[in-house]
């Protein structure tokens, strides 16, 4: 288990495993309305079987090196997820994504977790660039990106189909040399 910072001694980040399936399904069930806004695809993980199948695929993607995914725990309670995806070892870059249960938002947990994974990505994985994309209306993710030093690089017009509507995506980038 990895503690994300001394500020959050009860918060840890651990690699996802199939044994987290019931906790993941419960998190999704309890946060349906919250997740619907920006991550409707996560709602598909509300059943134990679907969560188990997803975590099995996540394990396979991690073994291939294309994606690495972790769960964020508050004590023994699963409170969110974070992942590096589209990991490109040749160009030393990846994209980052995350979510937290509604009850854990606004405490700095997401910022600390993202910072911990950035430290891992730029350190152990020796990546040079991390990209973060978020829907134009997702003010919390926009604020997180800016707080952690990501630079706004542009907007992908109608870059995502979200709940049946095309929305613009803000694109943020952070380079190893800029990470403090």
Walk me through this protein's architecture.
By secondary structure, the protein is α+β, with helices and mostly antiparallel strands. Strands 1-2-3-4-5-6-8-7 form an 8-stranded mixed β-sheet, sandwiched between helices. The radius of gyration is 16 Å and the shape is globular.
Question: Can you tag this structure with a few keywords?
Answer:
180 residues, alpha+beta, eight-stranded mixed sheet, 8 strands, 31% helix, globular
Question: What is this entry, summarized?
Answer:
This protein is an alpha+beta fold. It has 5 helices and 8 strands.
Q: In which range does the helix fraction lie? A: 25-40%
Structural class comes to alpha+beta
User: Residue-averaged pLDDT, rounded?
Assistant: 94
In what order do the strands lie side by side in the largest sheet? 1-2-3-4-5-6-8-7
What's the main sheet like? 8 strands, mixed
End-to-end Cα distance, whole Å, is 23 Å
The low-confidence parts are none
Number of helices: 5
> What global shape is seen?
globular
Radius of gyration: 16 Å
Which SSEs are present, and which pair or pack?
Layout: E1 2-3, E2 11-15, H1 21-30, H2 32-36, H3 48-64, E3 68-74, E4 77-88, E5 93-100, H4 109-122, E6 129-135, H5 139-147, E7 151-162, E8 165-175
Parallel strand pairs: 5-6
Antiparallel strand pairs: 1-2, 2-3, 3-4, 4-5, 6-8, 7-8
